[in-house]
Predict the 3D structure of the following.
Amino acid sequence: MPKPRVFLTREIPEAGMRLVRDSCDPEIWPHEVPPSREDLLRAVRNKAGLLSLLTDPIDAEIMDAAPDLTVISNCAVGVDNIDVGAATARRIPVGNTPGVLTDATADMAFALLLAAARHIVPAVEYVRAGKWKTWNLQLLLGADLAGRTLGIVGFGRIGQAVARRAQGFALQVMYHDPGVAESPIAIPVTLERLLKEADFVSLHVPLTADTLHLINEQSLGLMKSTAVLVNTSRGAVVDHQALYHALKHGRILAAGLDVTEPEPLAVDSPLLNLPNCVVVPHLGSASRWTRNQMALLAAQNLVAGLEKRRLPNCVNPEVYD
Ligand code: DGY
């Protein structure tokens, strides 16, 4: 019996690749940059399974170009690149990779929080430029964490993991998430109160129509002029133009961004000229163990879909109703 044909929009780490090769006949996009729309439309045409990354927009047209498609497996927890409604309407299960990247992403949120609060990037540049002449009482003074307040917007798995880390830094923690009524380690508050009172604001919401540009000129205007904003969720949750103006004119102290709009951020983006903005290239889940586990989960979702089994992590379980 021939193995089912699948398209992988990139090679995935070995743990997942092994399972894909054992169970499927894969075509793998061989380049670092994502396939173009035309390439994607062509590649899915005769495939029963599609394994995508968050860089690949998968919409109704792509699904309709693949009449044999029985499963879409996204190698990410976020699925904003996929029209899940269109998949559900076609009874195609969509898989994602929750859980395994919680700690790595929470670690990155803290890395960015500390980097932004303590001017790590300008400090490294200062040393590299040979400007370090002596110990200086006034040099690159940053923000303290202990006793200050961290506001977490979106209190799911990753938001809660950030809260646990905050306890180790003696931060008070408040959160905004209408879906989580209470927590033993953080106080639920309105978004307005969080923005007004938090010294550090960390974003952990999925990108949806409701969260698009949730952080905009108005919300930045509510924040303290000493506040630090951290985004490890999706770039479009923050209006970058408004953020640029807030950082440039000292309306907030600093920002740490793992995600941008668009990705990659253009090298001439004005954000990159600001000393108080740390930008890294969407590395939240980029640890070896995590990426292997994501690949494995994505492969397991793919294979389950091909075998008409329930996906281990399915974002549209209503397809099974
Ligand atoms: C995800 O899985 O959605 C993350 O953004 C990847 O780091």
Summary: The longest strand covers residues 149-153.
